Amino acid sequence: MEKRVVFRSAWLPYALLAPQIAITIIFFFWPAVQAAWYSFQLQDAFGLKTEFVGFSNFATLFADEHYLASFKTTAVFSLWVAVSGIVISLLLATMADRVLRGALAYKTLLIWPYAVAPAVAGVLWAFLFAPSVGILTYGLRQVGVNWNWVLQGDQAMLLVVIASVWKQVSYNFLFFLAGLQSIPRSLIEAAAIDGAGPLRRFWTVVFPLLSPTTFFLLVVNIVYAFFDTFGVIDATTEGGPAGATQILVYKVYYDGVKASDLGGSSAQSVVLMAIVIALTAVQFRFVERRVQY
Amino acid sequence: MRVRLLAAALAAAGAFAAPAQAQKEIQWWHSMGGALGERVNEIAAGFNASQSDWKVNAIYKGSYPESMTAAIASFRAGSPPHIVQVFEVGTATMMAAKGAVKPVYQLMKEAGEPFDPKNYLAAVAGYYTDTKGNLLSMPFNSSTPVFYVNKDAFKKAGLDPEKAPKTWKEFEADAAKLKAAGQECVYTTSWPSWVHIENFSAWHNLPIGTKSNGFGGLDTRFTVNSPAHVKHVAMLGDFVKKGYFSYAGLGNKGDAKFAGGECAMFTGSSGAQANIKKLDKFPFSVNFLPYHDDIKGAPQNSIIGGATLWVLSQKDKSVYPGIAKFFTYLSSVDVQVKWHEQTGYAPITNAAYDATKSSGFYDQNPGTDVSVRQLNYKKPTANSKGLRFGNFVQGRQVIEEEMEAVFAGKKNAKTAMNDAVKRGNDILIQFQKANK
Fold first, then answer.
1. B246, B400, B434 ranked by CB distance to A44: nearest
2. What is the pLDDT of residue B20?
């Protein structure tokens, strides 16, 4: 027999859901619809003259090769952030899982960076890597590396990736650690008795069992790289040099907020929205099937 | 100072205590942080103490783009501030917003306040007047790029510390000597486009765009890919390669590099000297920007940066006379002299300049008058009056991106400046469409 609590009242479930729905509508749907609406308009900054221009904003956008380059930049950036973030945190989590003494201290220290705001993380790394006074720059100079991210696009990209990953590793770490601890010891011990070494145990037992966590983190990390890293970039490279770190969300902000180009900025955010919806759909539809739960 | 502030506070308190007449408030949004913000508050307090009908509230709203965006947003929401400080690149956007702004010349005329644009420094007022010579916003803080030399570094390299290079040729010769003497950072700059494109153009009497740099209409297009521009940018790229130019980044990032004593030469805002002086790490000189002596007519005059005060259209028209009174107070000689001397910004009126000069301030503080002399070097031409390009926040970003590509050795100067013009023109066309 099914054991379920059923609300008999017709309105109570709706009333209970109402706050959540209201928040979703006011803070998510309404702005999204407004962005979509603005993306079809040509407006001056003050909104004195508004003209419906159909897809003209999108046409302008896709005719701009620098906008297209921004896609590539975003793809490269997100991939780096998500993959290296997950790999590093998985490594740290496996290590922390084996530690017996002082485990709490390790864990606490590893979780700390998550409490740092993205902008602060950005500034921190920018200082360490500052082209002339940074301590890490000094070290790199000693080993013969000419470090100057203010001018070198690849280095600027590396800097924002490092800052973004550093911040996100804690989050990934927490989930991996929880995932590792939920794997029954007996499974690993059985594998050990059968003669599997630590590496083999990891790849054949632990990693498959962690796949739901990994998959979840992949989605979260890509969304993080797409949106939340804005603060890191704004505080360090501001999209430069020569657009080398201008990811899509930063361009949306710059054009909309700093340059008061509402139509163009809205069109960009609609495109961004479409990308994230598509990415999430693909991930859940195709990747999730191959994940063992 | 303290006594005066106290008096102001007492006067303000007195005004509250005896509201015989209802006092009207004027909201003034500005972007002057730190010490500059204190000066702004003093101006507001001084005005409030000088009369009892009006009360100016100076409110710090963040950086220039932030306060401009905030003002636009609140205009769209129906409750704009009365006065907003807008930086020079936002000028075209404000000007095109007919109906959203109240032109200052109209405001002053309607209120019957004495107001003659001729009293204002030509290089300052010219930037903000329409084609008929009417001043549309109230000049407030104006600076211009100047050329700084670290005298210690010059001495170390065996150069005469009192002789700053005047032309780019001399500059290169000195740079080579500095480099040979082991100077790590020979030269750096702040505001790449403002210094090396916009002011470079004015200083050499070259157009930045058609239609008198945009003053003549919205159908203006960029011309920064002229042979002279390409040559200058190529020279900078070459300097990077030779190690004469350590690029510091966008905005005022170069300021700290020079003020910290790292670089021997520096181009940046005249407003930067206050901070260099405060850090006091080395003796320095303030000089005219170097020029190319093979370009005819150079040097001409430099153009300003900084911000002006725009009056936004109000539903309640009865506040306009109060704003006009405040502007009269703001441009009075005493207020301007103090502002100029304390902040390093250019004085906005000729009278304030003369008063500062006759008081001997420039003799005691060498270098402080370089900005004014450079702005006034020759009578401004159509090329050196200023610039007025729509969405120039984006336009400048495009130009700087292309400059960075040259500095990084990714593009040659010609391709980069052609691309800057092409991309910049797309932005101008978009602006023209949105504001026709």
1. B434
2. 45
